[in-house]
Amino acid sequence: MSAADSHILPVYSPPEQIFVRGEGCWIWDEKGDKYLDCIAGIAVNAFGHAPPFLVKALTEQAGKLWHTSNMFKIKGQEELAAKYTRDSFADVVFFTNSGTEAIEGALKTARKYHTANGNPERIDIIGFQGSFHGRSYAAINASGNPSYLEGFGPRLPGFIQIPFGDEEALRKAIGPTTAALIIEPIQGEGGVRAVPDETLRLYRKLADENGFLLIFDEVQSGAGRSGKMWAHQWSGITPDIMAVAKGVGGGFPMGAFMASKEAAKGMVVGVHGTTFGGNPLAMAIGNAAYDELSKPDFLAHVNTVANHLGQALEGLKDRHPSLVVETRGKGLLRGLKLTINPKDIQAKLRARKVLVGVAGDNVLRMAPPLVISEAEIRQAIDAIDAVLTEQAVQASA
After folding, report:
1. Is the pTM of this model over 0.85?
2. Per DSSP, which regions of 86-131 are E strands?
């Protein structure tokens, strides 16, 4: 079907392939062509396509109970929340259907905290240019990307953007109306930029000194993608609130925001809710996914293959200095900043049956399933190498 014949709202421009089946790190289109998937639904399919243990968890639950809404207790929520809080800074969890909803809840929690403390004037959320926090109205205002905001009416009050990593600008932005600072430990859409550990530690210090909350957006960087369960754990500090999604469901739509008991003090009965969030199907998947992610051997594998990928990308930079400016990211969320349009490289790789993503600031993005092997990484790197070589030859002709 051509784009002109489609009845889908035209806010995306996907390529012609229609994928119908997946297994592990591989995905097949309706013509039967096989592709190596190195973007994993944008860091979602943490265990690859159709992992048997998640298929089992979902089908078993599907035969029992699908939905009750949160007007009733859901056993799977209690079980998964206990696991999340056992292994993190958080005391409480609220389950959502998506990362955007998790961010929305995190922002509301931060402002409600100050109201509960008698400081309702503290509404300002400080964010960073190049960030991406979702597509809801609050989320696009938190990100501040002009292309996402244009045409949707006036900016919401209480959202401030500063340059990425600019300590002086941050200190100037902090004031008596500051409610929270929100940041991705590894920016995804903004160009696969990892925030240095010492910078995250500085943000924690400034939050403590000035009485505002620290929100980490780990929607893309969490669920083992960095080599630890949550990317901020590399820094040794903790946030007050965290939003998660994508990989935590292993391909099934689910997310959550988590908070310390103190940060969540304003979130009492009636101030927030969801009909579908934390439904029994999602919780069956979420529990099975977290149990797998929590295995030491699983994260050890992620770190092993991530080191291999990082070294291989550095090799590409050395071989193609006119095309690759730098390598970026951490774990299995990596990027190549290019001197050319990464979408052109993405298309040529797709023609070679390798799927990758792109991100802002001219970055070719890789976020493969966490179960990817070194051999599969080599196959992807060889394809990128070949495409970059072709590009260099064409440029010199």
Report:
1. yes
2. 92-96, 124-128
